[in-house]
Amino acid sequence: MNKTVCMFVWNHFTNDARVLRECTALSENGYNVDLICIHDPKDKYLPKYEERNDNFRVFRVRRYPFILELMQKVYRKSVQNKLIGLSVLILLLVAIYFSPYFFGTITLLSILLLKTKAKVVFVRGSIIFRMIARGFQKKYDIYHSNDLNTLPQGYICSKIRLRKKKLIYDSHEVQTSRTGYDSGFYGKSEKFLITKIDSMIVENHTRAKFNEDLYGFYPNVVHNYPFKQDEKKIKIAPLHDILGITKDEKILLYQGGIQAGRGLEKLIQAAPLFNEGTLVFIGDGRIKPDLLKMVDEMNLHGKVKFLPKVPVEELPSYTKNAYLGFQVLNNTNFNHYSASSNKLFEYMMSGVPVVACSFPEIKRVVEGEEVGVCVDSHDYNSIAKGVNYLLEHKSYYEQLLLNTTKARKIYNWENEQLSLLKCYKKMYTN
């Protein structure tokens, strides 16, 4: 009988390439996988339940409690329509008269409608509760938590029961040193929960060594490599037409989250120094408005273009248009410094040479396989110098193209998935 896996991830599972690869590999190699993630109420086309294949199902739990969603709708309608607002006021007065307890509950939830920490805690707590409830609905053999924000769910479902189940902690990031995780609460939480797991997975050996120094054991390493691409099946997107640029214009591409610490401001500062080409960002994120403002202030609309994120399955058709790709993380924390970055391997898989930061895991691949150039990602002049070198030295660039073809035969998920399957098998043989 196939073993059953309950996997948790704290996102909508629309662009999480690593989790998609892991679930697919398990479901194709003797495991039944249920992935529990979060529904996006803003996306009316996103299903709450999917069957990706016979052994891989996706369950999206509600983001907001029903009563909170209802009150938010009433509040918005009240603002838009005075008559509805008057009706709501009358109902509240009736509620106060007949049921002060009900009124107290409504008042508490109304406070949560405000953008306060209380609302954040309430919403996140309710998501965790719904994930746990879903995790208990079936008899699973293994629970698999992706990152620290789903490890409590995995711990409760796997260990707070009469017959304990196996628990895997799959840490995609360095939880104790990453952007947005400045509070000591995260380190203390991980230190406590990590003693409850049966197995741990990290992205590379630099992070595995860091974990060993911190917690005294060396976790399993499963690199974040992309699926092999069948060149014949990839229909190249008309990216030049979409951007409104000529066919011979070189696309200098950044794809991924538009987030702090990824050197994206430096790319815009470097753009006027590029001898040719258009800098293109494909993705969305918190600092995108700031980058758009930079482009406005520097009057770079003809040199820098933005596109929204595209589904992970379609991304290679866009990537293949690029002359080169950027991976220029800044050393803002150990999480960035130690990254391997799926972006690097996605460029390589699409036959796109890279301009990359000089951090150990990235430099090892870029210079070791000769698929690009490494630069000082904190210096926009260094970035521009790297770009111009690849623009000017045509024969060297052609060699890099050939090297990407060789490298993608090594750095692919079809090879790397064996490490994941070995990790699962090892839990039952130790």
Write the layout of secondary structure elements.
Blueprint lengths: L2 E6 L8 H11 L3 E8 L10 E5 L2 E6 L4 H15 L1 H17 L1 H14 L3 H19 L6 E5 L4 H9 L6 E5 L13 H10 L5 E4 L2 H11 L4 E2 L17 H5 L7 E5 L8 H7 L7 E5 L5 H11 L5 E4 L7 H5 L4 E4 L6 H4 L4 H8 L4 E4 L2 H9 L3 E4 L4 H13 L1 H14 L5 H15 L3
Parallel strand pairs: 1-2, 1-5, 2-4, 5-6, 6-7, 7-8, 9-10, 9-12, 10-11, 12-13, 13-14
Antiparallel strand pairs: 3-4
Helix pairs in contact: 1-18, 2-3, 2-4, 3-4, 5-6, 10-16
Textual characterization of the structure:
- The protein is α/β, with parallel strands linked by helices.
- An eight-stranded mixed sheet has the order 3-4-2-1-5-6-7-8, sandwiched between helices. Strands 11-10-9-12-13-14 form a six-stranded parallel sheet, with helices on both faces.
Low-pLDDT residue spans: none
Strand content: 15-25%
Q: How many separate helices?
A: 18
Number of strands: 14
What strand order characterises the main sheet?
Answer: 3-4-2-1-5-6-7-8
Brief characterization of the structure:
This protein is an alpha/beta fold and 430 residues long.
List keywords for this structure.
8-stranded mixed sheet; globular; 6-stranded parallel sheet
